[in-house]
Amino acid sequence: MITNILDVLDLNGKLTDEQINFVQSKIEVLELEKNEYVLKIGQVCSFIGFVSKGLVMFYNIADNGEEKVCEFIKENDWVSQYQSMITETKSSIEIKTLEPTTLLKISFLNLKLILDEIPLVEKSFKQVIDKFLLKMLERSHSFQNLKAEERYAIFVKENSELIQRVPQYYIASFLGIAPQSLSRIRKNS
Questions:
Q1: What structural domains and CATH numbers belong to the chain?
Q2: Whose CB has fewer CB within 10 Å in the chain, the N or C terminal residue?
Q3: DSSP per residue over 9-66, as a string?
Q4: Which residues contact 121 (CB under 8 A, 6 or more apart)?
Q5: Which is nearest to 27 in space by CA: 117, 124, 114, 87?
Q6: Per-residue pLDDT averaged across 94-102, rounded?
Q7: Which long-range contacts (CB under 8 A, 24 or more apart) does 8-17 make?
Q8: What separation, in Å, do the N-terminal and C-terminal C-alpha atoms of the chain show?
Q9: CA distance 90 to 124
Q10: Which of 49, 69, 45, 44 is nearest to 59 (CA)?
Q11: Which residues form the Cyclic nucleotide-binding domain (predicted)?
Q12: pLDDT digits 0-9 by tens, 116-141
C-alpha cells in the first residue's frame, strides 16, 4: 500500500532500501469512514496526504451555508490545503471523505525532512505540485470560457468513474450549476 506513493512519484527502483524505509517511516496510515473530515475550515493544514483508496472532496461554505465543491480527489492522487500548509494560516476550505478512505498522511515537518534528505523525492514532488497548479489553471479557464455543457463534457471525459461515485448535487456544485441544470444537461447528452 505505502509503495503507491513511490509509484506515483516514479521512484520505484531509483531509491535505496534505506531511503525507502526512511520515507515509509514518515507515513501515517489513516482509515477514514465516509463523511469524515480530513480538514475543517479554520484549522491550519499541517500535512499532505495520498489517497490510497477512496474519495475525498474539497469545498468551501458560501454565506448562505451552501457547500461549494472545489475538487474531488480519488485514488493515487494527493490531498492537502497547500496554501494553508505553506503559509501556516487557517484553511478557508474543508476536506471530507465521500467514501471510506485510506489516506497516507505525511506531516509537513516530515515532508521537509524527506525533501531535505532525498533530493530525488524533492524533484518528483515538484512535478506533483506543477501538475496540481496546471489543473487549477485549466479549471479557472473553463469557468471563464466554457458553457456548463462543455464543462460537464470535460468532467465526464476526465472523471467518468466519478459519475457513479459522487452524488449529482456535488457534481453540479463542482460545475457551478444548479442540480436541475445538470439533470437537463445529462438528459440532452
A1: 3-118 (2.60.120.10)
A2: C
A3: TT-TTTS-HHHHHHHHHT-EEEEE-TT-EEE-TTSBP-EEEEEEESEEEEEEE-TTS-
A4: 9, 11, 15, 23, 114, 115
A5: 114
A6: 97
A7: 8/50, 8/76, 8/77, 8/78, 8/128, 9/121, 9/124, 9/125, 9/128, 10/124, 11/120, 11/121, 11/124, 14/120, 15/118, 15/120, 15/121
A8: 38
A9: 27
A10: 69
A11: 31-107
A12: 999 888 888 888 888 888 888 888 88
Closest C-alpha to 55, from 70, 39, 76, 40: 76
| Residue 12, pLDDT score | 62
> How many CB atoms lie under 10 A from the CB of residue 169?
13
Lowest mean pLDDT among 78-87, 101-110, 117-126, 164-173: 117-126
- For residue 11, is pLDDT > 70? no
> How many C-beta neighbours within 10 Å does residue 83 have?
12
Helical ranges in 146-178 per DSSP H: 148-158, 162-165, 168-175
Q: Please tell me the pTM assigned to this model.
A: 0.87
Nearest to residue 19, comparing CAs of 31, 32, 9? 9
